[in-house]
Amino acid sequence: ADGILKVGTITTSSGSGTITIGQSGETTNIVGTLQNNSSAVATTNGITMANNWRLSSDVSSDAEPVLPWEENDTAGAGKIGSSMTLSSGIFTFPSTGIYLVTLTAVVLEGSNTDNLVQIDGYFNSVRMMSTKLHVINNNDFTTGTNQAIIDVDDVSKTFKVHYVNNGNSADLQGSTDENRTNLVFLRLGDT
């Protein structure tokens, strides 16, 4: 039968153990906030922050940090929650949490020189990801993607990207119209 249970506290008769709500195959709806009082409880919120940034113009020489970046503003682009904050190529996080950061780099070789370039992601001045791309032929594009799960336990911690092309003719590709070199920040849960 359908009904509403109104209680202040639910405990087991022994004071510890497991409380089962419903039976296998049934759906239990929880309206409001399910709190985790320092116990293992699954969240009902899912991803609370998703944000996409892209390099808005090409970078043709070493850059520490890489810039300029822009938040993806292409028609149909979506986001969840608050955006990352950007200042002079350095990103700060909107809240503490465990984040998945994805860095995709696109490089265009401008000559027939055999080049090795490196794109690094730094979290709080520690290199968390490094992508090395071997670019060979004139006007060839090379793409690499790297990911890191990071613990942002303080919103003063930062993320930045470095590009090392060692004086080569390979450009890190940017665009204001589409994602080429880009970053995705996903907040997966609490720290």
Describe the fold and architecture.
This protein is an all-beta fold. 0% of the residues lie in helices and 41% in strands. The strands form 2 sheets. Strands 1, 2, 5, 8, 10 and 11 form a 6-stranded antiparallel sheet that branches. The protein has a 5-stranded antiparallel sheet with strand order 3-4-9-6-7, with no helix packed on it. Strand 6 and strand 7 form a beta hairpin. About 3% of the residues have low confidence.
Using DSSP, what is the number of strands? 11
Q: Overall 3D geometry?
A: elongated
Distance between the first and last residues' Cα: 40 Å
Helix fraction, binned, reads under 10%
Biggest sheet architecture: 6 strands, antiparallel
Strand content: 35-45%
SSE topology string: EEEEEEEEEEE
Assembly context of the chains: single chain
Radius of gyration over alpha carbons?
23 Å
- pLDDT under 50 segments (min length 5)? 40-44
Estimated structural class? mainly beta
DSSP helical segment count? 0
Q: What is the arithmetic mean of pLDDT?
A: 87
